[in-house]
Write a structure and sequence with these properties.
Blueprint (H helix, E strand, L loop, with lengths): L1 H12 L1 H20 L20 E15 L2 E4 L5 E13 L5 E12 L8 H13 L3 E8 L16 E5 L3 E7 L2 E6 L3
Parallel strand pairs: 4-7
Antiparallel strand pairs: 1-2, 1-3, 1-5, 3-4, 5-6, 7-8
């Protein structure tokens, strides 16, 4: 127990070291996410999901523009932008092969399971699902420059949906990396 207290005290005494550790962990997980490795791409183990169908993105700017709750789609005029660490996007098609919408898997890295979400992550995604059990999805507009998205078929201004079951978080547990679906 004394060792744990010593580590916590050392981290509190040196917040720069904690920030550097968090940045290193986030970068390491993002490299793996861009390669579609599990972890952090735990969703690849889910039935019917194929990694080749998804295009990975790092540090994607997303602005909330709509949400669907209780079967009603509502536009959002005051949505804020947040930066998604790792976003994997797939175009969902109907039975005739016609594109219907773009679905995103959202992954974020934190140093611990209890590390807080950023204010915009909370207000634009996490708290929406947490506070509305009927919320089906949140729709975002990509607000990242096309120069940054050169190799992606998804461009600035396109819309993507994030569903309740499409949010994942990776964190450190000792030396292990744990990725889990965020339950909201």
């Amino acid at each position: 127990m004394g060792d744990i207290v010593g580590v916590v005290v050392a981290r509190i005494a040196n917040p720069r070291q904690l920030g550097a550790e968090a940045d290193a962990f986030e970068n390491a997980m993002s490299v793996k996410a861009m390669q579609k490795l599990n972890p952090p791409c735990k969703w690849l183990d889910e039935a019917g999901e194929v990694g080749a169908d998804y295009t990975p993105h790092k540090q994607l700017y997303l602005k909330r523009v709509a949400q669907k709750s209780n079967g009603q789609l509502s536009t959002v005029s005051d949505g804020k932008v947040f930066i998604g660490d790792d976003i994997h996007i797939k175009t969902k098609k109907n039975e005739f092969g016609v594109a219907q919408y773009n679905q995103a898997k959202y992954h974020d890295s934190k140093l611990s399971d209890t590390a807080p979400w950023t204010p915009n992550q909370r207000s634009e995604l996490i708290d929406l699902f947490k506070n509305d059990s009927q919320l089906e999805y949140v729709e975002f507009e990509i607000r990242t420059s096309d120069d940054f998205l050169q190799q992606s078929p998804y461009k600035n201004g396109m819309k993507v949906r994030i569903y309740r079951d499409d949010i994942y978080k990776s964190f450190k547990q000792g030396e292990a990396q744990v990725t889990q679906k965020v339950v909201l």
